[in-house]
C-alpha cells in the first residue's frame, strides 16, 4: 500500500527525511581507573541523548578507563574490567536509539590498542584502533599502546564474539541513506595525513574523533582550526569530543571541549571547564554534504584508487530512524551571506569592497573611454556604487570629476530623495547632472494606452517598469555634453543604478 497524505506530510516534516542526522558529542565526568562507574556515566548520557532523538554520540578517548592512568593500562585487572564494561554497556544500551562511540584500551594478541568501540542497539559493530600515538612532551602512549596503522581485515573477540577490528572500517546504516561515518582518535587529526581523510574519500560523510587532549593556553583555537579545516577539506561533518573533569590533574588539566562542524561551519560547542557532564548536539545535513561532493570533481578525483580492491570494509547496521517531526536543532543564519562572528564582519566587508574596486578598475582600464557614468538615486545601492567608483578613481590617480553622476527623478521621487542625491554628488566632488524622466515616461505610457496617461491613479507593474527601463535606456543612449571631454558618443560599459549594476564609461 502507498503512503497516506498524512504519512507523506509527516515524512516531509521529519528532518530524517531530508538527510539530517542528530549528532552529539558527550563528555561525562571521568572516574580514574574505574570502568564500571565510567560505563554508568556513559550510559546516563546515552539515555539523555536517546530522549533527545539523537542518532549518534561521540564520547572521549579511553572514556571507559580514563586517559591519565599511566602504567595502570598494563594491569590485567583493569583491562579485564574494561572488556566487561564494553559488553555490559552494549547490553544496557540495547533499547537506546543512538549509535555510541566510546573509548577503551583493548587487548588483541600480545598488543594493547587505544580503541574506539562502536555500539548500536545491543551490538558491538566494530573496533577502530588509534593510528598515530603521540610520544613527545607530556605524551608517552608508545609505552603502553601499539599503533593500529597496519591493522586491517582483522577481528577482535569481545564477550565471546568476534567483531570487525582495524583502521579499515567505515560504518553505514543499511536503512538510512547517508548515515555513513568513520572514527579516528585524538592525535590522528594532528597528523599530516589524518586517517579521516581516507575515511572521507572512502565514502564517510561524518567523521568522528574520540579525544582526550589535555589543555594548554591556545590549544582550543588549534582544535577548532583542525576540525574546521578537516570538515572543509574533506567536505564532511566532523564531531570532536575531548575528556574533561575527573581526569588526573597532578601534571595536566583537561577542559572537556566538544564541537561539531559541517563543511567549515561550527554547529555546536560544549562549555569548557565544566564540572558537570556535557552533552551537546546538532542536526547535521548529510544530504547536503553528499550533494556537495557530487558537485566537486576534485573530491572524486582524489577518491580514485588504481587498485581494484576497496580500501575499507563497510560495517552495515540497522539504525531504525524515527521519521516523526522533531524540529531542527542547528544555527540558522538570519543573513546567510554575513558572517556569524562580529569580528569577521569588518574583514569581509573590506574584502568585498576592494574586490568591487579592483574589478571596476580592470574594466575601466580595458575598455575605451575616460568617464564613469553612474545613476544616483540617493538610495543605498547607488551610494555604494559611487563610493566604489570614487575609490577606483583615487587609486587610478584620476580626478573624481571623471565620474558623471546623473539623478533621474520620476513620478515618486520626493524632495528628500532628490536632495540626498545632489548632496551625495557634491560631497564626492563628481560631475553632476539631472535628467527628468517624467516627460518620456508619460509619452511611453500614452503610447501603451496605459490608464495613467488618462489621469487614472493606476500604479501597477507596467507603470513601475516604464520608469525603471527608462533610466538605463537614457544612460546607454546618452551623448556627452559640454562638461565632458569631447562630443563623441557615450560608450556603455559600467552603468550602476540601484541594484542593476552594469557601469558605464564614456568618452
Q: Which helices and strands, and how do they pair?
A:
Blueprint: H1 5-13, E1 20-27, H2 35-51, E2 56-58, H3 76-92, E3 99-108, E4 111-120, E5 123-129, E6 154-158, E7 161-165, E8 169-173, E9 180-185, H4 195-201, E10 206-211, H5 219-233, E11 237-242, E12 258-262, E13 265-269, E14 278-285, H6 286-294, H7 297-303, E15 313-317, H8 342-366, E16 372-375, H9 380-396, E17 403-407, H10 415-428, E18 431-434, H11 438-447, H12 461-477, E19 504-505
Parallel strand pairs: 1-2, 2-3, 8-15, 9-10, 10-11, 16-17, 17-18
Antiparallel strand pairs: 1-14, 3-4, 4-5, 6-7, 8-9, 11-12, 12-13, 16-19
GO cellular component, one term: cytoplasm
Domain CN hydrolase: 21-286
Catalytic activity: deamido-NAD(+) + L-glutamine + ATP + H2O = L-glutamate + AMP + diphosphate + NAD(+) + H(+)
Question: Would you give an account of this structure?
Answer:
It is a single chain. By secondary structure, this protein is of the alpha/beta class. It folds into two domains: about 5-315, Nitrilase/N-carbamoyl-D-aminoacid amidohydrolase (4-Layer Sandwich), CATH 3.60.110.10; about 340-505, HUPs (Rossmann fold, 3-Layer(aba) Sandwich), CATH 3.40.50.620. The chain has twelve helices and 19 strands. Helix 8 packs across helix 9 (about 380-395) and helix 11 crosses helix 12. The longest helix has 25 residues, at about 340-365. The N and C termini lie far apart (about 75 Å).
Amino acid at each position: 500500500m502507498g503512503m497516506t497524505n498524512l504519512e507523506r506530510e509527516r515524512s516531509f516534516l521529519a528532518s530524517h527525511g531530508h538527510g539530517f542526522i542528530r549528532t552529539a558529542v558527550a563528555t561525562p565526568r571521568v572516574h580514574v581507573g574505574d570502568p564500571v562507574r565510567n560505563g554508568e556515566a556513559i550510559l546516563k548520557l546515552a539515555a539523555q541523548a536517546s530522549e533527545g532523538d539523537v542518532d549518534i554520540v561521540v564520547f572521549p578517548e579511553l572514556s571507559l578507563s580514563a586517559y591519565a592512568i599511566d602504567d595502570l593500562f598494563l594491569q590485567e585487572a583493569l583491562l579485564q574490567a574494561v572488556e566487561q564494561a564494553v559488553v555490559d554497556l552494549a547490553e544496557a544500551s540495547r533499547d537506546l536509539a543512538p549509535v555510541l562511540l566510546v573509548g577503551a584500551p583493548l587487548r588483541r594478541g600480545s598488543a594493547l590498542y587505544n580503541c574506539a568501540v562502536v555500539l548500536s542497539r545491543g551490538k558491538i559493530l566494530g573496533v577502530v584502533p588509534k593510528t598515530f600515538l603521540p610520544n613527545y612532551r607530556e605524551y608517552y602512549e608508545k609505552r603502553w599502546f601499539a599503533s593500529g596503522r597496519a591493522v586491517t581485515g582483522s577481528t577482535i573477540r569481545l564477550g565471546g564474539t568476534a567483531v570487525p577490528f582495524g583502521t579499515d572500517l567505515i560504518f553505514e546504516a543499511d536503512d538510512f541513506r547517508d548515515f555513513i561515518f568513520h572514527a579516528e582518535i585524538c592525535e590522528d587529526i594532528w597528523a599530516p595525513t589524518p586517517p579521516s581523510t581516507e575515511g572521507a574519500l572512502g565514502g564517510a560523510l561524518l567523521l568522528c574523533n574520540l579525544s582526550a587532549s589535555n589543555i594548554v593556553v591556545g590549544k582550543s583555537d588549534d582544535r577548532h582550526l583542525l576540525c574546521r579545516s578537516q570538515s572543509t577539506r574533506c567536505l564532511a561533518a566532523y564531531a570532536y569530543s575531548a575528556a574533561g573533569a575527573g581526569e588526573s590533574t597532578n601534571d595536566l588539566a583537561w577542559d572537556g571541549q566538544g564541537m561539531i562542524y559541517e563543511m567549515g561551519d561550527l554547529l555546536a560547542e560544549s562549555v569548557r571547564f565544566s564540572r558537570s557532564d556535557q552533552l551537546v548536539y546538532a542536526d547535521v545535513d548529510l544530504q547536503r554534504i553528499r550533494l556537495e561532493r557530487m558537485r566537486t570533481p576534485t573530491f572524486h578525483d582524489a577518491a580514485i584508487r588504481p587498485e581494484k580492491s576497496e580500501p575499507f570494509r563497510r560495517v552495515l547496521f540497522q539504525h531504525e530512524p524515527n521519521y516523526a517531526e522533531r524540529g531542527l536543532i542547528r544555527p540558522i543564519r538570519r543573513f546567510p551571506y554575513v558572517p556569524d562572528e562580529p569580528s569577521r564582519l569588518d574583514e569581509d566587508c573590506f574584502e568585498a569592497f576592494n574586490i568591487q574596486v579592483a574589478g571596476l578598475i580592470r574594466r575601466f582600464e580595458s575598455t575605451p573611454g575616460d568617464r564613469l557614468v553612474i545613476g544616483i538615486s540617493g538610495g543605498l545601492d547607488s551610494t555604494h556604487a559611487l563610493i566604489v567608483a570614487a575609490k577606483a578613481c583615487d587609486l587610478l590617480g584620476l580626478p573624481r570629476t571623471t565620474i558623471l553622476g546623473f539623478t533621474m527623478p520620476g513620478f515618486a521621487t520626493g524632495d528628500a530623495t532628490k536632495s540626498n542625491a545632489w548632496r551625495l554628488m557634491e560631497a564626492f566632488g563628481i560631475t553632476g547632472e539631472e535628467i527628468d524622466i517624467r516627460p518620456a515616461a508619460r509619452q511611453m505610457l500614452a503610447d501603451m494606452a496605459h490608464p495613467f496617461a488618462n489621469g487614472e491613479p493606476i500604479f501597477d507593474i507596467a507603470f513601475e517598469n516604464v520608469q525603471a527601463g527608462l533610466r538605463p535606456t537614457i544612460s546607454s543612449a546618452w551623448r556627452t555634453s559640454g562638461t565632458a571631454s569631447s562630443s563623441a558618443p557615450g560608450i556603455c560599459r559600467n552603468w550602476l543604478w540601484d541594484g542593476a549594476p552594469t557601469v558605464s564609461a564614456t568618452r
